[in-house]
Task: inverse folding
C-alpha cells in the first residue's frame, strides 16, 4: 500500500505514474466530499502538490466534472500534448496520471467520519444555492468582475511595486500606474486577527449554509511575503483560531450565484491538529 | 447677498469669508417607525422648519443635500427629488448624497461648502433611512453593501465581523479587553435613557451587557447598534442672513472630511481609523481649538469598539488609552471630561444609516442651545464635535460647532 499524506486538508497517495487525492471524509464506509469541496478543489490541490515537487505541469485532459477555467487560473498550469490526465473517481477523489492509469487503494482508514446530519444539510444547501432559479440576496459580483480578479483570488497573484501589492490595484498612493509585474505570493502566513460570526451575522450569501455550520469563521492573515488578506477558515470544525496561528491558503468553494459556483481562497490552520 | 462677481473676487483673494450657522434642526424619533420614507422626511423637515425661532418658510431654501444609502433599493434614483416634494421644496436644487453610514455627515459638509462658496444663503442638509420594513434576508444583504464586496464580503464579513477583527487586534496590541467595550455600551444606554427620540431607551447593567448574545466574536449584541428607521434635517444659513431667523444660532466652525482604503487588509493598521485622524486634524486646525476644548462629542459608535477608536483618533485619549478612558467613565455626562455621545449614540439613540450624521447635528444644535431634556443636558456646553463614519472607516466627516463663531 502506498504512503498516504495530508495535503491542504486532503489525503494524497502516489505511485510511480500517478498521484491521487482524496477527500478526508467518509460516511457509512464510503468517501464523501467535505463542506466546501468538490472535484475542482481536489484537482487544484492535486496540481499544487505536483507543482510543489517541481514537476512540469502540462495538462492534456481534464475530466468534465472539474472546472477547467478555475483549475488553470488557480494553478498556472499550461495545456499541451503528452501531459497529465486529470480524472475524477467515484469515491470523492481525483487522479493525475501520464500513460497508464494506476489506481491506489482508497485510504478509508485514514478518513474521518463526517456528521451525517450536517453533511446532508450542507449538500442540500449547495443544491439550493446552485439552482439558477435561486436569486440570491447576496452581493452581486458579476461574472466579468469575478473573472477580472480570478488569478489574484485563486493564485494569489500580486504586483511587485516597491512592495508587493495584493489584491491587484491600478495606481499606487502617489497616482503612479502600477505595472503588471506579477508575482505569486506564497500561500502561507499567520493569523493577525479573527472572528466567528453567528449565523444571524453572516452575509446573505452564506444564509443557507451558516445556520447548519453554526456560524462562519473569518481570519485576517499576514502572508509570509507581506500582503494582508481576509479569508474564510476551512476545515475549522473543531478549532478556535488564535492570533499567531500558522495558516495555509487553499482554494475551496465560496458560494454559488446564478447557477455558477464561485471559488476562492480560504485559510487552513496548520500548526495545530 | 448671494454669489456675485464682486464677492467671488473677494473670496478668491481671501478677503471675504462667509461663516455658516445652523438656524433650525429637527428629526423623527428613531426606531421602528410606522411612517414610510415620505412621511418620515416630511416629519423631520417640518420639525426643523418649526424649530427656527423667527418666521421661516421652505421657499427660502436655495439647495438641499439629502444623505441616504437608499436601504432596500426602493428608491435608489432621484431620492432627494421625491422626498423634498413632500416638504415644500419643489423647484429647488436637490440631490442625494451617498457615503454609506456617513452619507449625511457628507451632506452637511456639502451644504456648508455651498454657503461657503457664496452660491447659496440657506441650505438644507438631511438624511433618511427606512430599514425595518424588509425581510431579514433583504436586510442582511443591504447591511453588507458598503464594505469591499469582492474581497471582504466574500470572505464572510459584514460590518459586525469587520469591527470584530479590529476589536480582537486592538485587545492583542494594547492593555484592553472586552470589559472596556461593556463600559461604553452601559454609558451610552445610560445617556439615551431620557432621550425622547432614542430607539432603545433602557438602562443596561454591566453584567447584562457583559453576557450578551455573541454576534461576531468578541462583539456581542450589546456592542452593536440597532437598525433604525429615521430622518433628520438641519437648516444652515450664511452669517449675513442667520440673524433674520434666530438670535441664538449654532455656528459650524469647521467642516473636514477624509477617506481611507475601503478594505481592512489594505490598511497599515486596523486598530485606528486614519480617515478620522485626518479629518479631525483638519477640523481642529480650521476652528483653532484642541480636543480638550470640546465639551461634548457625538461620535460614530456603530459598534462599541468604534467609539473606543474615535476616543483616540479624535484626540480625547492617547493612542492605546481609549479603553482606560471608557473604564474610568471619562466620557460620562457632566463628569468633567468631554462627554461622549450625550444622545446615547448610535448604540442607544439608533442608527438609521443615512440619517445618522445630521441626526448628530440635531443633538448638538439642541445641546448648545440648552434645549434637550434637562436630565441629560451637558452643563455649560460651548463647543461640540460630530464624527460620522462610513462603513469600517473608509470615509469620515468631522464637524466642530460653537455657540460663538471661531
Result:
Amino acid at each position: 500500500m502506498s504512503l498516504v499524506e495530508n495535503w491542504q486538508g486532503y489525503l494524497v497517495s502516489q505511485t510511480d505514474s500517478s498521484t491521487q487525492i482524496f477527500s478526508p471524509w467518509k460516511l457509512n464506509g464510503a468517501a464523501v466530499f467535505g463542506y466546501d469541496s468538490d472535484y475542482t478543489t481536489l484537482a487544484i490541490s492535486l496540481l499544487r502538490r505536483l507543482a510543489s515537487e517541481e514537476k512540469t505541469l502540462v495538462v492534456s485532459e481534464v475530466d468534465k466534472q472539474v472546472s477547467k477555467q478555475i483549475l488553470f487560473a488557480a494553478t498556472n498550469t499550461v495545456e499541451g500534448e503528452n501531459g497529465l490526465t486529470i480524472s475524477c473517481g467515484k469515491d470523492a477523489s481525483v487522479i493525475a496520471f501520464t500513460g497508464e492509469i494506476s489506481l491506489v487503494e482508497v485510504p478509508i482508514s485514514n478518513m474521518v467520519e463526517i456528521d451525517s446530519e450536517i453533511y446532508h444539510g450542507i449538500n442540500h444547501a449547495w443544491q439550493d444555492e446552485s439552482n439558477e432559479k435561486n436569486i440570491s440576496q447576496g452581493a452581486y459580483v458579476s461574472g466579468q468582475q469575478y473573472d477580472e480578479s480570478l488569478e489574484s483570488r485563486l493564485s494569489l497573484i500580486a504586483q511587485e511595486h516597491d512592495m508587493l501589492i495584493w489584491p491587484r490595484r491600478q495606481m499606487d498612493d502617489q497616482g503612479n500606474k502600477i505595472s503588471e509585474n506579477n508575482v505569486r505570493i506564497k500561500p502561507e502566513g499567520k493569523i493577525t486577527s479573527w472572528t466567528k460570526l453567528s449565523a444571524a451575522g453572516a452575509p446573505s450569501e452564506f444564509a443557507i449554509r451558516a445556520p447548519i455550520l453554526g456560524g462562519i469563521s473569518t481570519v485576517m492573515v499576514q502572508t509570509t511575503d507581506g500582503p494582508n488578506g481576509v479569508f474564510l477558515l476551512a476545515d475549522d470544525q473543531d478549532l478556535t483560531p488564535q492570533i499567531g496561528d500558522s495558516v495555509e491558503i487553499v482554494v475551496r468553494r465560496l458560494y454559488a450565484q446564478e447557477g455558477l459556483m464561485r471559488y476562492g481562497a480560504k485559510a487552513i490552520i496548520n500548526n495545530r491538529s | 447677498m448671494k454669489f456675485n462677481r464682486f464677492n467671488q473676487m473677494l473670496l478668491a483673494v481671501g478677503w471675504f469669508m462667509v461663516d455658516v450657522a445652523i438656524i433650525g434642526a429637527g428629526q423623527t424619533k428613531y426606531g421602528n417607525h410606522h411612517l414610510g420614507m415620505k412621511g418620515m422626511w416630511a416629519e423631520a423637515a417640518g420639525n426643523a422648519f418649526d424649530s427656527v425661532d423667527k418666521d421661516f418658510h421652505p421657499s427660502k431654501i436655495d439647495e438641499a443635500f439629502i444623505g441616504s444609502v437608499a436601504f432596500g433599493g426602493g428608491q435608489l434614483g432621484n431620492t432627494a427629488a421625491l422626498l423634498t416634494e413632500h416638504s415644500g421644496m419643489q423647484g429647488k436644487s436637490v440631490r442625494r448624497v451617498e457615503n454609506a453610514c456617513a452619507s449625511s455627515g457628507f451632506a452637511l459638509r456639502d451644504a456648508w461648502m455651498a454657503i461657503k462658496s457664496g452660491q447659496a444663503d440657506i441650505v438644507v442638509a438631511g438624511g433618511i433611512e427606512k430599514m425595518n420594513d424588509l425581510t431579514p434576508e433583504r436586510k442582511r444583504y443591504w447591511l453588507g453593501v458598503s464594505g469591499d464586496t469582492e474581497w471582504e464580503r466574500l470572505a464572510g464579513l459584514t460590518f459586525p465581523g469587520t469591527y470584530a477583527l479590529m476589536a480582537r487586534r486592538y485587545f492583542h496590541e494594547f492593555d484592553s479587553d472586552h470589559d472596556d467595550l461593556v463600559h461604553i455600551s452601559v454609558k451610552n444606554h445610560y445617556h439615551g435613557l431620557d432621550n425622547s427620540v432614542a430607539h432603545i431607551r433602557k438602562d443596561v447593567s454591566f453584567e447584562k451587557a457583559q453576557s450578551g448574545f455573541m454576534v461576531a466574536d468578541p462583539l456581542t449584541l450589546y456592542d452593536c447598534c440597532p437598525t433604525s428607521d429615521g430622518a433628520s434635517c438641519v437648516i444652515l444659513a450664511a452669517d449675513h442672513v442667520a440673524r433674520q431667523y434666530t438670535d441664538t444660532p449654532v455656528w459650524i466652525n469647521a467642516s473636514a472630511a477624509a477617506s481611507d482604503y475601503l478594505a481592512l487588509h489594505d490598511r497599515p493598521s486596523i486598530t485606528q481609523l486614519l480617515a478620522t485622524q485626518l479629518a479631525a486634524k483638519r477640523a481642529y486646525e480650521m476652528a483653532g481649538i484642541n480636543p480638550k476644548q470640546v465639551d461634548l462629542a457625538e461620535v460614530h459608535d456603530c459598534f462599541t469598539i468604534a467609539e473606543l477608536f474615535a476616543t483616540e483618533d479624535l484626540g480625547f485619549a492617547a493612542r492605546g488609552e481609549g479603553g482606560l478612558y471608557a473604564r474610568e467613565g471619562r466620557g460620562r455626562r457632566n463628569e468633567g471630561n468631554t462627554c461622549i455621545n450625550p444622545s446615547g449614540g448610535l448604540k442607544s439613540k439608533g442608527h438609521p444609516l443615512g440619517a445618522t450624521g445630521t441626526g448628530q447635528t440635531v443633538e448638538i444644535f439642541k445641546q448648545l442651545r440648552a434645549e434637550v431634556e434637562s436630565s441629560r443636558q451637558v452643563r455649560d456646553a460651548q463647543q461640540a464635535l460630530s464624527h460620522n463614519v462610513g462603513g469600517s472607516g473608509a470615509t469620515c466627516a468631522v464637524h466642530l460647532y460653537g455657540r460663538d463663531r471661531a
